[in-house]
Design brief:
By secondary structure, the chain is mostly beta strands. It contains five helices and 13 strands. Among the domains are: 93 residues, Ribosomal Protein L25, Chain P (Beta Barrel), CATH 2.40.240.10; 81 residues, Ribosomal protein L25, C-terminal domain (RNA Polymerase Alpha Subunit, Chain A, domain 2), CATH 2.170.120.20.
């Protein structure tokens, strides 16, 4: 088995701002965990990125420079922090391992093939499990676990128990957990649109006046206004003649004039 080489230097400064000074010098902070106290280190971000390019769970032969010389350690990358915009490494945590001791790691699951339920029947392939937890010796860690899904029809599924792993590797994930399945596409049914009832326009002007409810008092006609028109079909009544004054009684107007 091949190992990836990576150099590192011990650092002792823990104060605030030490990480910024390291980055200005072209390095990034790192920590080595394992037996004993964590070891503070500094590494080159470019060299670390090149080591990570060898694949997941790659075993790194870490050459740690100390005052007494160089100390070699076999490590795995436990955690990795990168810049969200540029993707450049900002921090790394290493886990020291023994090549003779079984460890637990997570291995990526890769799907291969085109399901018949997708190509011939329009189904949808769902990748449910992306990582598989296994236990093995460091030298036996598989780079990935593959699953052939070309035989999956509509409604078919493959579980963890269907995966094939190399000899010496023990699967720790629930065997009944679904890894991949082909589901039936959902048809979206459009709901019928109910037309809205037309809104009648509000009556204004003469039409509104004509529809006033009966029984309401009408305003008296203004002085000088024309008399109301006679109803259709009826003849207007002739004006009444004034009654003649009684005998011996002068008209009221003439008496009023004589008194003035």
């Amino acid at each position: 088995m091949e190992f990836v080489e990576l150099s590192a230097e011990r650092r002792t400064e823990r104060r605030k701002g030490a990480a910024k000074r390291l980055r200005r010098a072209g390095l990034i902070p790192a920590v080595l965990y394992g037996e004993g106290e964590p070891l503070l280190l500094s590494v080159s971000p470019k060299a670390l990125q090149a080591a990570l390019g060898a694949g997941e769970n790659v075993i790194i032969n870490l050459q740690v420079k100390t005052d007494g010389g160089v100390e070699a350690r076999k490590v795995l990358v436990k955690e990795f922090q990168a810049d969200p915009v540029r993707g450049a490494p900002l921090h790394a945590d290493f886990l020291g391992i023994s090549m003779m001791r079984v460890i637990a790691v997570k291995v990526p699951v890769e799907l291969v093939g085109a399901p018949v339920g997708v190509t011939a029947k329009g189904g949808i392939l769902e990748h449910a499990l992306w990582e598989l937890e296994v236990k093995c010796l460091p030298a036996a860690i598989p780079e990935r676990v593959t699953l052939d899904v070309s035989g999956l029809d509509l409604g078919d599924a493959r579980h963890v128990k269907d995966l094939k792993v190399p000899e010496g590797v023990t699967v720790e994930t629930d065997p009944e957990q679904v890894v991949a399945m082909v589901s039936v596409p959902r048809l979206e049914v459009e709901e019928p649109v109910t037309p809205e009832a037309p809104v009648e326009p509000e009556l204004v002007g003469r039409k509104a006046e004509a529809e006033e409810p009966e029984g309401e008092e009408k305003e008296p006609a203004k002085k000088g206004a024309a008399p109301p028109k006679a109803e259709a079909g009826k003849k207007p009544e002739p004006p009444k003649k004034p009654e003649p004054a009684k005998k011996g009684e002068a008209p009221r107007r003439e008496k009023e004039k004589e008194g003035k």
